[in-house]
Amino acid sequence: MIDIYLAVNSLIGNIVEPMIMGRRVGLSTLPVFLSLVFWGWMFGPVGMLLSVPFSMVVKFTAQANPQTQWFAVLLSPAPPAGPGDRPAVDQKKVTTSLNHGR
Predict the structure, then answer these.
(1) d(CA 102, CA 80)
(2) Which of 32, 69, 72 is nearest to 50 (CA)?
(3) Mean pLDDT, the chain, as a whole number?
(4) Cα–Cα distance between 97 and 82 in angstroms, integer?
(5) Contact 53, 36 (CB under 8 A)
């Protein structure tokens, strides 16, 4: 029974929680996980609790300085795909090619 608890706790604490926290606060999942490890190593459980606020301070500080904005971009999640990111698909050609295949 304790094995199941440890497995679920590890899964939630190391994978699910960083993903959710990253999306909510505007940080990428990897920096959230790495900050959790780093601040936990530095300050123990208190550092783990404060890892996301510490990372947000670092991100906001990096955004404020034009020379370090590249670092803030690295901490941010990927931007959503815009209309220019994918090639335009001609719907008429797709429909025509699908109809000829029958």
Answers:
(1) 36
(2) 32
(3) 76
(4) 27
(5) no
Long-range CB pairs of 42-48 (<8 Å, 24+ gap) are none
Q: Which tens digit of pLDDT belongs to each residue from 39-88?
A: 899 998 888 888 888 888 888 898 898 898 888 888 887 665 555 555 55
Whole-model pTM: value is 0.54
The rounded distance, in Å, linking the Cα atoms of 64 and 98 is: 52
Are 23 and 78 in contact, with CB atoms under 8 Å apart? no
Give CA–CA dist 76/70, Å, rounded. 10
Three-state secondary structure call for residue 85: coil
CA dihedral 49, 53, 59, 64 (to 10 degrees): -160
Judge residue 27's burial from the number of C-beta atoms within 10 Å of its C-beta, 0-12 exposed, 13-18 middle, 19 or more buried. Answer: buried
